Amino acid sequence: MMSVSNAQETPSIQICRIMRPDDANIVGNVHGGTILKMIEEAGCIIGTRHCNTQSGDRCLAALARVERTDFLHPMFIGEVAHVSAEITYTSKHSVEVQVNVLAENIVTGAKKVTNKATLWYVPISLQNVDKIIEVPPIEYSSPEREEAGKKRYEAQKLERLEDKVRNGEIIMSVSLPDRQTKEPFTVVCSQSSLIHLVGPSDCTLHGFVHGGVTMKLMDEVAGIVAARHCKTNIVTASVDAINFHRKIKKGCVITVSGRMTFTSNKSMEIEVFVDADPLVEAEKGKYRAVTAFFTYISLDKENKPLPVPPLKLEGEEEQKRFEEGKARYLQNKAKRLADKERQQ
Amino acid sequence: MMSVSNAQETPSIQICRIMRPDDANIVGNVHGGTILKMIEEAGCIIGTRHCNTQSGDRCLAALARVERTDFLHPMFIGEVAHVSAEITYTSKHSVEVQVNVLAENIVTGAKKVTNKATLWYVPISLQNVDKIIEVPPIEYSSPEREEAGKKRYEAQKLERLEDKVRNGEIIMSVSLPDRQTKEPFTVVCSQSSLIHLVGPSDCTLHGFVHGGVTMKLMDEVAGIVAARHCKTNIVTASVDAINFHRKIKKGCVITVSGRMTFTSNKSMEIEVFVDADPLVEAEKGKYRAVTAFFTYISLDKENKPLPVPPLKLEGEEEQKRFEEGKARYLQNKAKRLADKERQQ
Amino acid sequence: MMSVSNAQETPSIQICRIMRPDDANIVGNVHGGTILKMIEEAGCIIGTRHCNTQSGDRCLAALARVERTDFLHPMFIGEVAHVSAEITYTSKHSVEVQVNVLAENIVTGAKKVTNKATLWYVPISLQNVDKIIEVPPIEYSSPEREEAGKKRYEAQKLERLEDKVRNGEIIMSVSLPDRQTKEPFTVVCSQSSLIHLVGPSDCTLHGFVHGGVTMKLMDEVAGIVAARHCKTNIVTASVDAINFHRKIKKGCVITVSGRMTFTSNKSMEIEVFVDADPLVEAEKGKYRAVTAFFTYISLDKENKPLPVPPLKLEGEEEQKRFEEGKARYLQNKAKRLADKERQQ
After folding, report:
1. What backbone torsions phi and psi does residue A337 show, to the nearest 5 degrees?
2. What's this model's pTM, rounded to 2 decimal places?
C-alpha cells in the first residue's frame, strides 16, 4: 500500500475517470477533445505542484504549448481513461510534462495505450499575472536524459518563435441557403464555427480559460467540419503542435472556427482558429488566441478507416493551403516511418 | 468576407453546438428547454456586446421578456443546432433580439428551421445592479423597419405592464399514496415540481441566474407533467410570452412547479411557476419570480402527433383555468391561420 | 516509473481532479456530495474491474452500502482531490472497498486527509440485471487481515438486514406563507426538497443511477436544510451508514427530502429520504429508494465551528426523532473517543 507522503513527492500523477455519454459522439466514440482536456488537467496539476516547491511567489502553471499528439486507438463510453503525467524536463522558465493515456475496459479487462503527449507549461505568479516565476530544477536519472530534454526544449523554443498565430480572416459559419447552393466537398461547404460564453468552471484560479477547455472546443469544431465533409462517423487521428500565444480571460466569448485544408485518401486536415472577444471590456477588441491543425479519419461500423471524399478546391488561396497541408502530411508520414524503423 | 474588427460592430452572432445525450430525453428528442437556453445565451451575448459599445458603466444584458415561441420541428442527439441572433430594435433602455434556430443533421445534410424567437433585454450596470444603462441606438435599413420595431416595443411594453405574475398557491408534488389513489388524467395526478439549488454556472457575472437556465428548468417540469399525463414521448410545441419580473440571485433554491390547465385533441397546456427562496437571507422570503404556459404534444415512434387523453377536471378552479386555456388555444390557432393566409 | 501493466493488475486505483467552482458552495468549500461522488466512482471502477477478472458473465459493481464516513477537513476550490481505492475484502457475492481522500493545495503544497470511507459493492450481470455474479477471491497479506475483513462483512450484513428503509411521510418543501409564519428553528421551517429528472450522464451502462449521483443529491438537500436553520456557512461533518436497498432506473424523477432531527451545541443531524418515481411506467408507483442521516456543522469566516441554534421541537414525533438522534450522536462521540484512546 502506497504511503501518502511518497505519492505526493514523486513528480508524477495519475488522473482517471469513467467515460460518460456526454464525453462521446452518437456512435459511442469518446471525443478527442475530452481526452485532450484530461491530458491538460494532469499537466496543469503536476506543473503547478512542481513550480510551488520553492519559497517565493505562489504560481499556477499555464499551458504554453502541446507537441504533436497522435490518437492511436478509439476510446468508448464506459471505459476508464487513465491519464498519467510526469515532469521530464525543466528549463529556467518552463516545464516539460509527458503524458500517457490508457483506455481500460473494466468489463473485458482490455487495455490499450491511446495517446502520448508532451506539454510545455510556464509558471505564472498568482499575485501578478504578467510575471513568470523561475522553475525549480528536477533531478535526472542520467546526464543523457537531461541532454535529450535540453534538445527538445531548444527545438520547441525555436518552433514557438517561428510560429506566428495565423492571423487570417475569421471563418464565418455559412448560412443555410448559402451552404445548400454550394457544391458538396468544397471548403466553404463544411466550414463551421462554435461560439462559447466562458463560464466559471472553464477557468483557473487566475481567471483564465484552461488550455484543455480551449482544446476541447477546437476538437469539437474540427469534428463538425469533418462530419459535414464525410457524413460518416469521424474520429480525431492527431493534432499538430499547438502554441498558446495569448491567454483568454473570464467573461470572454470564444469563437472557434474550422475549415478543411487538405484531404489524403484516408484523412482530413482541418485548420482551427480561436478568437476571444472580451464582452464587457469591448475596447480591448477581439483577438486571435490560438490556431491549430487537427487530422481526422472516417470510420465504418467496425471502426475500420473509410476512404475520404477529396476536397474540391476553389481559388488560389485554397490551393496554396492544400499544398501546405500536403507537405505537413508527407512530413508526418515520413517521420512515422522513420520512428517505426528506429524501433525495429 | 468580414474583417475581424467589423465582426464586432455588426449586431449579429451565431452560436452552434452539437446536441449531446444530456440535452435530450430517453428517445433522443432534444428538450425544448435546451434550445431556449441556447437562444437566451445568444441573446445575452449580442445584447451585452452592443450595450458596451459606448463609454460609461460596463453592463450585462438581462433578459426581461421572451415573446411567444413555437417549436416547429423536433431536434435530435448528434444534430448541430445553429442559433443566430440579431439586434432588430433598441429603445432608450431595452434591446430587441431576433433569434433563429436551425437544426442540421451533419450526416444526411438535412436542415430545418426549428424556432424563431424574439427576446427583450435590459442593460444592467455591473457596478450597481439596480441601475439600468442607456442603450446605444442601432441603425435601421429603412424608416419602415424602425417604425415596425417601435410598434413591437410599445406592444410588449403594454403587455408587460398588464401582466402580473400569477400568484397562486404553490403546486406541491403529490406524495405516493395520493398519486396512486387519484384518478388518472386529473390535474393532481400529473402535477410536478423540480427543486434546484442555484450553482455558479447557472449565473451571470452579476450573480443572477441566466434567464435561459430558468427557462430550461421550466420546460423540464412541463415535460414531466406532460409525460405523466400521456405516458408517451412528449415534446415542447410552444411557449407563451414569458416576462421576467424579478431576478433570482446566486444562492437561492428554485422551485419550479407545473400543472396541466388545458387539453385539446392533440395538445396539452401546462402552467409553470418559478419560486425563488433565498437560502441564507431568509428574511427576504420566498417569492414568485416567473410564470409561463408551455404547450406540449405527444408523439408516436415515427414522430407523428398522437391524440392526448382529455384532462379530467375536478372543481370550479380547474374548470375556470381550463376555459382560460381554451381561449388561449383558440386565439393562437386563429393567429396561426391568419399568419398563414397573409403569407400566401 | 510504474509500468503500465502493474498499475492495472494491483487491486488499487487513484482518481484525482481539480476542484472547480461548480463543485463548491459560494464561500468556496467543496460540497461533501462532490467528494462522496468521487469516492463512489473510484469504488465502482475498482469493484467492476475486479469482478470481471474471471470468465463468465460480464458485470458491473453496484453500490450496496457505504459505512459511516467522516469529513475531517474542508476542501477548497483549486485544490486537487486524490481519491485512492483498494479492495480489502471479498465475500462470495460482495466486495469491500476502502477509499482514502486527500486534499492537496498544489500552490502551498499543503496536504490533508479529508475522508476515509468503506463501500460495499455487489456485481450485477450486464445480461440479466437481476442476477448477482460470484466474486473472485482476493489474496490477503495475512490471515489476520482476512479474519478482520470477515468480521466487518458479518457486521455490515447484520446491519443491512436490520435496517429497513425508513418509510415515513414524504417531506414537503414548505411554501412561502407557511414558512414565514412558522417560528424560526423549528423542523418545518428548515425542511427542504430537491427534485431531479435523471439524465443519461447520471446512469451506469445498466441504466441505473450511480450511487454517487444519489449521494451528491442527498448531501445537497441536507446542506440546504442546514443553511436554512443556521443562515451561515455550513459543511458536511459526517454521513451515517447508507444502504442502497432499491435501484433507481433511467427516466425516473427523484425527490430528495431532508428534515432536521437533532442539534447538539455544534452540530446538526439531518434525515434524508430519496424517493424514485418512474415517469412513464407509472403503474410501478413511487418508492422509497434510500434513506440516511447527514451531520453538518456551521463555520465562521476562519472555518472555525460556530454554535448551532437549538432545534425547536413541535409534537411527540419530533421529540422522539430528536431523542433517537441524540442517541446516535452520543454513540458516535463515545466511539470516536474509544478510537482515539486505542490509537494513543
Report:
1. -60, -45
2. 0.83
